[in-house]
Structure formats: C-alpha cells, structure tokens
Amino acid sequence: MIRVIVNGIDGAMGSTVVKCVEATEDMEVVAGITPTGWNGSYLTPAECKEEADVLIDFSHHDGTKALVDYCVEKGLPAVICTTGQTEEEMEYIKKASEKVAIFKSANMSLGVALTAKIVKEIAAKFPGCEVEIVETHHNRKVDAPSGTALMLADAVMEARPELHVNSGRSGMAKREPDEIGISAIRMGNVVGTHEVMFGTANQTITVTHQAHDRALFADGAIAAARFLVGKPAGLYNMDDILAD
Ligand SMILES: NC(=O)c1ccc[n+]([C@@H]2O[C@H](COP(=O)([O-])OP(=O)(O)OC[C@H]3O[C@@H](n4cnc5c(N)ncnc54)[C@H](O)[C@@H]3O)[C@@H](O)[C@H]2O)c1
Questions:
Q1: Under a CB-based contact definition with an 8 Å cutoff, are residues 212 and 191 in contact?
Q2: CA 20 to 30 Å from 112, out of 18, 133, 156, 216?
Q3: Cβ distance 44 to 69 under 8 Å?
C-alpha cells in the first residue's frame, strides 16, 4: 500500500485527490494538512506525525518553504501541484530537489503535456508567427496568468527563445513582434481552458485544451505519486512520465 499525505486536504483539489485515492486499490490517505484544521487535519506540515511514502500538494504557494523543509527533513517525495510560486520559491524547490525527489508541474494532465509538445512544434515550424494565449478559469482562482498558460508559453519559447511574455495587455501600445500575449478570463465554474493561437499573414492555427473535471488533475497527481515513490532525489515533471 502506498501511503499518501495530502497537503491542502480540504481544498477543491485536495478533496478530489482524497476521493480518487479512495478509488485506487494500492493507495491510502494517511494524513491531511490544511491551515483550517479541517476534520482534525494537521495545521502545518511540521506537525504531521504519520509516516508516508509520498505527499501530494494542492495548497497555496505561501506555504512552499514550510512544505519543502518538511519533505527534506523526512526524506518524503513530494508531488507539488500548487501553482503561482515566486522565483524565490521555485529556487527553494529546485534546491530541495537535490536532497529529495520532487515532481513539479503547473498542469498534471497528460493532455496538457502533449499540448505543450504540439505547441512547441508549431512554434518551430512557423518562426515568424504571432503567438497569443487565452486562458479561462473559475472565479475563485487567485493567480493570473495560470501556471499552465506560462508553461505553454515556455514550450513556445523553447522553439522561439527571442520571445517574451506580455501578460494582461492594456494601454496605448502596439503589439510587439517578439511578445507572447497572455489574456486571463475568470468566470463561473470553468475548470480550465487554454487556447494557444499562432497567427501568420494568411492563417491562424489554434490549439485548445479543455479540462472538464478536476479529477483529471487528481488522477495525474496520483500517477505522478506512483511514479515518484522510490525515485532518487531530483526534479521531475510530466515529460518524465511521458518518457517512462
Ligand atoms: N498542477 C495542476 O494541475 C493544478 C490543477 C488544479 C489546481 N492547481 C493549483 O492547486 C492549488 C490549489 O487549488 P484548489 O483549487 O484546490 O484551491 P482551494 O482554494 O480550493 O484550496 C486550497 C487549499 O490550500 C490551503 N491553503 C490556503 N492557504 C494556505 C497556505 N498559505 N499554506 C498552506 N495551505 C494553504 C487551504 O486551506 C485549502 O486546503 C492552486 O495553486 C491551484 O492553482 C494545480
């Protein structure tokens, strides 16, 4: 049995992870962490006493250091699904991954990982094209642009390193040729839609990924947790699962 700790256990995603783990035969949730103390959960990672094989995190980036310190101290592999980390917090995660196995992806869907590959290929095939990304999420999301939109922009920039992100364009300025515009829409209960548009003089190619159910990300996190157990220290992502 793979023993799982869920950080952010009473959140929309944390509670979905619990349901999805319950539906597996080889995994069990042994503890939960959340600052609300929901249902007897631990308030902070440092307080958590249970032994586990892996931790799945869907919480808030403000808790990054506390979470990472705990995982390093315990030698506990962590699947960090939380988005919105600052550069400093990302550096902290990278440094910790020298000591413990960490899986980090802004989007836990295999479909999005494949979308990123396709997007990179299109960007390489049309070197002069204009690239715009539109992302739509539910009205409770706090970070913008979404981590997935930035991940897709990174995929484009792997093929077109001269580009840079212009997020939330407004005011009196023309579009610069070397920018990737990202527009964020927040509305209702949308789980997550990402459209990457490539415009040339005479055509537009649009690649769209729509998530219909949060269980998509929970299932991805569970697959990543299974992948991570027993792995040596390092920073892993969806490409490692695709290659596995
Ligand atoms: N990687 C992915 O595929 C993916 C998919 C969906 C959501 N997410 C990300 O996961 C995170 C959680 O999403 P959600 O929809 O479940 O949010 P949510 O607001 O429903 O839940 C957040 C959880 O984190 C806890 N929390 C709040 N502030 C905290 C803090 N400072 N320290 C530690 N814990 C804190 C809350 O108590 C709650 O349990 C977000 O960053 C979101 O963008 C990632």
A1: yes
A2: 18
A3: no
d(CA 221, CA 110) in angstroms, rounded, equals 10
| Model confidence, pTM | 0.86
Q: State which residues form the domain around 23.
A: 2-108+215-243
Q: Based on the domain organization, do 205 and 230 belong to the same domain? A: no
Number of domains present in the structure of the chain: 2
Give the position, in ligand 1's atom list, of the atom nearest the Cα of 81: 1
Give per-residue pLDDT as tens, 89-119: 999 999 999 999 999 998 899 899 999 999 9
Is the domain of 104 the same as that of 220? yes
The binding-site residues of ligand 1, defined as CB within 6 angstroms of any ligand atom, are 8, 10-14, 34-36, 58-60, 62-63, 81-84, 105-108, 217
Supply the DSSP symbol for 60: -
User: Do 83 and 119 fall into the same domain?
Assistant: no
How far, in Å, from the CA of 34 to the mean position of ligand 1?
A: 10
Nearest residue by C-alpha to atom 15 in ligand 1: 12
| H-state helical runs in the chain | 12-22, 64-74, 87-96, 110-125, 147-159, 215-228, 238-243
> Does 59 lie in the same domain as 102?
yes
Residue 242 has pLDDT above 90, yes or no: no
What number does the ligand 1 atom closest to the CA of 16 have? 16
**Catalytic (active-site) positions:** 137, 141
Residue 158's pLDDT is 97
Residue 128 Cα to ligand 1 middle (Å) = 38
Ligand 1, residue 107: give the atom nearest the CA: 3
Within a 13 Å sphere around the CA of 242, how many CA atoms are in the beta-carbon half? Answer: 14
